[in-house]
From TrEMBL:
GO CC aspect terms: cytosol
Naturally occurring in which organism (per UniProt): Mucilaginibacter galii
Signal peptide as annotated in the record: none
Record keywords, A-Z: Kinase, Transferase
Every Carbohydrate kinase PfkB domain range: 17-314
GO MF entry, a single one: phosphotransferase activity, alcohol group as acceptor
Parts forming coiled coils: none
Gene3D superfamilies reported for this sequence: 3.40.1190.20
Identification of the protein by name: Carbohydrate kinase PfkB domain-containing protein
Length: 326
């Protein structure tokens, strides 16, 4: 039984080694009150009460893995700026290995600032450059990552379309990782899934799959399987794991299809839930479970974090409790 396997993983206490490669960012929140409009323009005046900073993008995936008990090496880019230093410091405080993070002086560290009045988000301000990574930085990052691949149990690509996963670097990474016999799970962005050719699992949501497959819609199982066929032809991927919001999660291979219903009974905030699903899938596959078993437990992990406000993480003990209650 799945619950027995999960208990065994917890009791064994073995920490899988997981390499996360992806777009790194900071989520910056400005909290305040807005009781009047500006005399300069018809916009609210926010009286700031507090500010908070959390890890975003691939850094949030890494934080989820640490919460579950994995050992994590994180690879990616930051700017040569104050925000880059802040991001690296937070990662190291979380126990995440930052040896494969390099600085790019041509771009700022990605920071998303959300201004909220009470519980209402008024505006989001993004500081970022999304141009493709320069070739010399590709070489530098690949060299660092090659030193880590042999020691890792599984590799994650967390693609937020911020310029790291150029087609060139993505294919060079895949070749180096496959050469070491390691599985790759991708959380994709953009329309060019051919750059992910020869990975193990791609995890799009319904909208991402619809756009990448150039499908008119995905409403039925037939629609989903037809769109998936397009991606299988482009990439040769073994599995697509498609998140379907309130309908749950579909595990699709070229020969099989399985729908896992959603586990959440109440939803407060879906922020970061995709990162949690990605992290949990990787953790449990690295722990020896099948793709179906890992997705089932990832579904429980997502149910836990969307019952909380903001980007949240969960633990193996909480996942076990959720499985026991279901």
């Amino acid at each position: 039984m799945l619950i027995d396997k999960l208990r065994s993983v917890i009791q064994t206490g073995k920490q899988p080694n997981i390499l996360v490669i992806g777009d790194l960012m900071i989520d910056h929140y400005v909290w305040g009150d807005a009781t009047r409009l500006s005399p300069e323009a018809p916009v609210p005046v926010v009286n700031v009460k507090s500010e908070s900073t959390t890890l975003g993008g691939a850094a949030n995936v890494a934080q989820n893995l640490i919460s579950m008990g994995a050992k994590v090496v994180l690879g990616g880019l930051v700017g040569d700026d104050v925000s880059g230093g802040q991001l690296t410091t937070i990662l190291e405080q979380e126990g995440i290995d930052t040896c494969c993070i390099i600085k790019d002086s041509s771009r700022p560290t990605t920071v998303k600032t959300r201004v909220l009045a009470g519980s209402h988000q008024l505006v989001r301000v993004d500081r970022e450059v999304t141009d493709a990574i320069a070739v010399d930085l590709e070489d530098e990052l690949l060299k660092k990552l090659k030193d880590c691949i042999a020691q890792t149990d599984i590799v994650l690509f967390s693609d937020y379309n911020k310029g790291l996963f150029s087609p060139s670097l993505t294919q060079r990474l895949i070749a180096a990782i496959n050469e070491q016999g390691k599985k790759i799970i991708v959380d994709p962005k953009g329309l060019n899934y051919s750059k992910y050719k020869d990975v193990y699992i791609i995890k799009p949501n319904r909208k991402e799959l619809t756009e990448a497959a150039k499908a008119e819609k995905i409403k039925t199982i037939d629609d989903l399987q037809q769109a998936s066929k397009t991606i299988f032809e482009q990439t040769g991927v073994e599995y697509l794991v498609v998140t379907l919001s309130e309908e749950g999660m579909a595990i699709v291979s070229e020969l099989t299809y399985k729908l896992l219903p959603v586990k959440a009974t109440e939803v407060f905030d879906v922020t970061g839930a995709g990162d949690t699903v990605l992290a949990a899938m990787a953790y449990f596959i690295a722990s020896g479970m099948s793709v179906e078993e890992a997705c089932e437990l990832a579904n429980h992990a997502a149910a836990i974090v969307i019952r909380r406000v903001g980007s949240a993480t969960t633990t193996l003990a909480e996942i076990l409790q959720d499985v026991e209650r279901s």
